[in-house]
Each structure stands twice: as C-alpha cells, then as structure tokens.
C-alpha cells in the first residue's frame, strides 16, 4: 500500500504496472494466452507481482527488492520501460552493475525534449517546410508560436532531414487523422492545461491553429496542397461519426473551424489559365499571388468543397457531442465566429449564383448543400445568442437572397405548409435569420394582406348569405359589421382617445383583421391612408401621455414603461395593445417610446441588465458598478438589501424582491442574484397584469407566423421607423409630373431650401406634412415614393400635401425666397384634412 506507480501499459484485456521503488512489476486482467507472465493462463482480477530477476538499484540489499529470485545463479536487472499490446507483454531492462544507480523512466512527468507519440501541427513543422522551400519569401512565424514548443521536435521529422517529400508526407498524415488534428495547437497557458479539456473548455489555441495553418497552406506546392485536402476529405470529414469515443476527438473539429480551408469567395472565380497540378514539380513554389482560398489555389473547381463537408460533419453529430461543441463555440473569439458565418454566407451566395441545374439530381444536390450550410448557420446563430460577446445579427443576413428568390412566393408557400401540417419541404423561411429587416417587413405585409383578403371574402360571403335569407327571417338578426369589408373607426378630434377606446371595445375581434378605415367627424376627407396616419399619430400621443398614469416616463432616457401605480383597468391596456397591433398590421409607423425590452418580451425573450440600462440609465449604471465592485466591504459601501423603493402617489413604498428581502443584505456572494431580481422586478413582476393585457391585445391582431421571424430591434424599427433620414435618398426616389423635372428651376430651389436651408426640425415637419409621419420606414425611402406636381396657382398660394398618396402640389413660384417662405408656412399645418 502507498507504493508509487510510474508506468502503466495496457494490452487488449490486461494491464501492467511498475513500482520502481521496490522493483516490482504487477499484472492483472485476462491471462488466457499467458500474457500476464505468471506461467499460467489464469485470469487475475487484482494486481499480482510477476516473478523475475529485477530489482530496485536503490534498495538492492532490501528483502523487498527482489521476489523469489536467487541472485547466486543470475544477474539482477533494473526495469527501465514496460510495454503491452494485444495479448503480449514486453519490458526493457538494464543489467545492474555494483554501485550503479539506474532509474526507471517516470512517465508521470512530461519532458518537452522527449518525442511525441503522434504527429501534430506545430511551429517546428512550419519551420521545416520553410527551410525546404527557401526560395519562397514568407513572413517569419510569430514569436509566441516559437516560444510555445521551440524545443519540442516532431516525432518522425528527423533534425537532419529537410527533404520536401518527407516533410510534406508528415503534414498529410496529420490531416488524414482526426486524432492528430485533435492533438494539434493545444493551449499552453499553464503546464498541461490542455488536459482540462471538458464540456466547457476545448483546450485548443485557436490563434495558433489559424496562424500555423495559414502558413502551411501558403508554403505547400499546389499538388501537395491538393493531396492534403483530399486526405482530409476522405479520411476525416467523409468518415465523420454521429459520436466519438472521446470528447478530445471534438478538438479536431475546433482546430478545423479556424482553418483557411473553410474560406469561401462570395461569387464564382473564373481562372482562364488553371495549370495542370499533376504536371507540377513537387518542390515548386507556391504562386506568389497567393489568394486566401487554399481550396481554389490547390486547383479544385469548387471552393466550398471543404466547408460543405465540414458543415455535414458538424450537423450529423448526436445531441450529446453537439451540445459540447455548441458550448465550445460560445468560447470562440467573435472574429472567428464572424469568419465562419461569413464563409457560410458566401457559400450559399456562391451556390445561388451558379448556373441553374438542369437535372433533378443536380438540383437536389445544390439544395442539400444550401440546407447543410443553413443548418450550420442556424447552430451558430443559436450559439451567438448565448455568446458573451455576440456578433451583430446583421452578419447572418443574406443580402443577395432577395435577388435570387421570390420572397413573397416563398413565404406564401411556407405559410401554406405551416397551416396544412403536411410534409415540409426545404424553405429559406425556416431560417429567418438570413432575411434582413426589409424582407421580414415584406413577409409581415404579405401575411396581413392575405388575412385581410380572407376577412373581406368572409364578409362578402356573409353579405350574400344575408341577402338570400333576409326575406324569410328578416335583417335584424345580422350585424352590419360582419358584412363590411373594412374595420371603420369614427372619432372626434376633441375626444379622440375616448372615441377610439369605445370603437375598439364595441368591435368584433374578427374585425381587427380587416383593412382599417378612419373617419374624423365633420371632415370631408376619404381615408386612402393619410387620415389613418394622422389618426395613429394623434391617438398614440394622447394614449401614451404619462399624465394618464398608464405609463411612467423615465427622465434621462425619455422612454416609457408600465407604471407600478396605475389605476387603469386591464381592458384599457388591452385596447392599447390592439392599437399597436393595428398600426403594424396596416403598415403605419407610430411614435412609441418603448424600450427594446418591450419588443423583446413580445417575441418571448427575457430582458436583461442592458435593457434596464437603456430604460433607466442611472439605475442601470449603479447596478453595473455593484457588479464591478470586488472589495470585501461591499455591504458597508452600498448598504443594500433585497428590496426596491417605488413612488406610490407621493409615498415611498418598499417592495421586497424575494421572500424576507428586507432582512437579506447584499454581499459579494449574492450581488448577482440581487441584480437579477431587480431586473426581474422592473420588467416582469411590476407590470405583470398590464403587460399581459397589452400582449393579449397586440397578439389578437399580429399573432401570425411572420412576427416570429423578427429580431427585437427589427420589430422595434418596423413599428417606430427610423429617426435617421437619408435626405439624398429621398431626393433620388422622388418623381415629377407635368412640367416639373429634376432640373426645373422651381425643383432646384425646392431642394436647396429643404436640404440646405431648413433645420433638422423643419425637415422633420416637412416629412410629417407630406407623409403624415416624421420617421422613415424600415425599408428606407425606397418604400416612400413621393411625387411633386405643379398646379395653376402662383406666389399667393401655399404648397398642398396629399398624405394618402405622398403627393405634393408645389406652385410655380417666381423666386427661391417666396418658395422658402410659403413652404415654411405650409409645414406648420400638419393636422386636419379637407378636399382641395
């Protein structure tokens, strides 16, 4: 007991263990072939000593130094190394000489100067490749790489052999073995740190892996590079498994994740003079005009060959290794994550840009390649959501998609499949992260129009049914709203809020799916869109006014959130939600001063500390300071407990954040929990009842499939539009009628006044005057086509705006000064409608 084992060797079903202190060699396991060295074929469950002529040189005279050995007739031996494999057992021993101290190898300690057991990618191999191709001028490897293992030679690379064939053969061997790749470029932050490989740590130095691979592919001649890629495809990626015997095998996939072999151009590259790689000299140099696409440089015609195979290998993993790999990807530096996403994005764009396939099998092959790339992007998108430093969701957009497919048709087909519940076919709509905000807005509008058409069709059928039956049962049994194709709201300007809530309360929820029409009492205008725009502008301004007590305005951010002390009923918040849904449903931009947290909750996500920083910057910064404070006196410095104090009609009210929160002091150990509970209170518990009512109303109108496609910030931009106005884009998207054209003198004066003389506030007033809103849609001015036409009036008349058509009647003024004056007066009149 207590003896130290310094060597262990394993065969197929037996094990050896060496205790050098006593000179004893133990064996246990299966002995059917006498592999235990006991002189019989008996199995041993426990370690048993093997008799032999070996001793410990330190204790030659000790009784325990030899077991059952008579040294009078034989020489003693000291065991140096033990070996075992299959059903065999071997040992390497040295004859003991009197007075000589011989130590067995201690394999518990790793010696950097000792040979490695397997081949790996390391700085030495780059140096030896560089030496073999000295004619090629390359930047020296970074010093950090050299210091990692400068004294560690590669196993089978002789220090005296720099022959290209021998060196390249070793590199090819590495890329033909997942085990070799898994042992390459391991972290050396601390001795043996890579042995900590587990579910949370992969142990691969990704920076080193990226740098060394880039240099290797740069150095290798084309024919060798092509052979290396073929070996990787045939022996590693094409033979990938659903699972692996060890978690360390997954390190090879992380090693490849940063490889330049995955680099992908966005569009096909046509090389008119591709050399015959089979006729090239193995010692020839790489082309000095090196491109960052090794697969193309090797002579392959398909640059996405490795990336597609890598995607398949990742996607086919079983859930258990797949979850481990996802955790490892969350530890990946953002630049490598973004590079992977970019390459996958380019691969899809590349395939879409290829000539259409004529054969069915070729079309299915292209579709499968795109699907595999999208599945990998879907994984990375999920990983990015949990990444401590996520990349922008814009990185996942496929901007060329709208030019390659009919988004409207694709979305309609996808909707039909979702509603039918039948067999699902491949659709880009299953991967909403590839669509930009404008494309998603188009899908939402399509779904809204389809629903409106369905509602109008039902209304027409109801009207026909009523007309057929009314002679028999009378018309009093029918409500006129069921036969109208529109949902009409009639309001008074001086009582717009109460009239609106009354209209919504009396309406049938099915009417919300119809096309909205608004009429102001005693006004002549017919709503073709402009009246509705002003209606939402006015009603939202009153509804969200903090004076009503429904919402609290935070002074620093100027944003609104549900008031903890509101006295309004749930029904009022239900109506507010319906109104917000109607605005989106009818493609109206409204000025909602809600933080991103509101749209995050509507999409089923949970707000966090960053959302609180946006809503209440003062409290958010304070909580961040609490988290950043590391001193032991935190409780004395901050003097906090698990409560929050609110203003309840002028009286401070203390709310516990958890049970018995008044008696729980905030300390270093529980400060994270305190912040979590505080954020939870603001966004969940303090507004639970009014928010649920608001959400219910909102989803009554906008509860379709398309809403789930949006990111929170995209949904926010869809609702409130953008305050950033590209006025040059507005000018480019303006059309003219009559005698006006872009170089007409009046038009030149008009743009000079608007773009260069007006202030920012005056420009916004003009936008509201012309379109009914001072914000820009999510699609930019490409979705706002304005038209300028002349009329027969002169200098005494003001410009007239037709907001329903974004049409401006601009008189032919005699000078720029009169135009500026009249336009300034006109933009002050942004409320009310009349016939002109």
Automatic annotation (TrEMBL):
GO biological process: protein polyubiquitination
Keyword Metal-binding: no
Domain HECT: 508-836
Keywords, comma-separated and alphabetical: Cytoplasm, Transferase, Ubl conjugation pathway
EC number from the UniProt entry: 2.3.2.26
Protein localization: Cytoplasm
Reaction catalysed by this enzyme: S-ubiquitinyl-[E2 ubiquitin-conjugating enzyme]-L-cysteine + [acceptor protein]-L-lysine = [E2 ubiquitin-conjugating enzyme]-L-cysteine + N(6)-ubiquitinyl-[acceptor protein]-L-lysine
MF terms in GO: ubiquitin protein ligase activity
Pfam families: HECT, RCC1_2
GO cellular-component term (any): cytoplasm
Key word RNA-binding present: no
Entry-linked InterPro entries: E3A/B/C-like, HECT_dom, Hect_E3_ubiquitin_ligase, RCC1/BLIP-II, Reg_chr_condens
First-tier enzyme category under EC: transferase
Xref: SMART domains: HECTc (SM00119)
Coiled coil regions in record: none
Main location (coarse class): cytoplasm
RCC repeats: 23-95
Domain of life assignment: Eukaryota
Catalytic center residues: 804
Record's protein name: HECT-type E3 ubiquitin transferase
